[in-house]
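Title: Comparing notes on inverse folding

I've been comparing how different people in this forum approach sequence design from structure. To keep things fair, I'm posting one structure and asking everyone to reply with a full sequence. Here's the target:
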């Protein structure tokens, strides 16, 4: 294992500090509650738009059905009025023809009654559908206002996080040249394998990477050997601060 000066190892801890801060910020950025709520609100708006489109199509279909029934009722009323005028005008004297007219009027009245019941049902559906559209409109307004509010909040929060990320990134760039390339490569590989922590201080006989207490004999060996050390438990790079 190549030897490295204590200064380089201490700079490695500085690098780990920056990388830990960057990882924390990236995790926070990815799991920002306001961003998650904004995504949910946008999905909700899409659902409301879809529901509103369906409701509008239903309104148009009901409107056509209502117009059709009203037209049919109007035609029956016209025919009934015409036939009734013939019956009561005395113009029809033939009993058979008169009976046929009266029977036809009765059938027309029955048909009109059926159509009026259907029209009433359609009108009730129109009223219910209009209420549903009104509710959807209100919900869309509320969701849109909430989305706008969240967009502003997320933009501010993301801006703050990005500024911090940039600051830590610049600090990291300053540290990297102070660390030998082989040590840096080992650190990067361990950091990838060990959840973002490739180097940890050994303080008061404990590895702060895995919080394992190092046996006294091993501590004395590390003190005598100096240079680059590895934790026997987690295999992270250990930087001896005190023993």
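Reply #1:
Here's my take.
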């Amino acid at each position: 294992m190549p030897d490295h000066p204590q200064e380089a190892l201490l700079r490695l801890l500085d690098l780990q500090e920056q990388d830990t801060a960057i990882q924390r910020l990236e995790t926070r950025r990815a799991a920002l509650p306001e961003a998650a709520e904004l995504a949910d609100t946008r999905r909700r708006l899409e659902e409301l738009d879809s529901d509103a489109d369906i409701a509008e199509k239903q309104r148009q279909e009901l409107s056509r059905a209502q117009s059709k029934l009203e037209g049919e009722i109007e035609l029956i009323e016209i025919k009934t009025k015409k036939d009734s005028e013939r019956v009561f005008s005395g113009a029809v004297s033939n009993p058979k023809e008169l009976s046929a007219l009266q029977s036809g009027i009765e059938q027309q009245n029955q048909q009109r009654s059926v159509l009026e019941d259907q029209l009433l049902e359609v009108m009730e559906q129109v009223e219910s559908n209009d209420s549903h559209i009104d509710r959807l409109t209100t919900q869309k307004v509320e969701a849109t206002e909430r989305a706008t509010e969240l967009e502003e909040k997320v933009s501010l929060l993301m801006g703050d996080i990005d500024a911090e990320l940039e600051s830590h990134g610049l600090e990291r760039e300053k540290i990297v040249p102070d660390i030998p390339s082989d040590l840096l490569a080992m650190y990067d590989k361990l950091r990838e394998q060990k959840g973002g922590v490739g180097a940890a201080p050994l303080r008061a006989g404990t590895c702060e990477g895995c919080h394992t207490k190092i046996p006294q004999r091993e501590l004395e060996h590390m003190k005598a050997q100096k240079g680059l050390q590895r934790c026997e438990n987690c295999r992270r790079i250990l930087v001896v601060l005190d023993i």
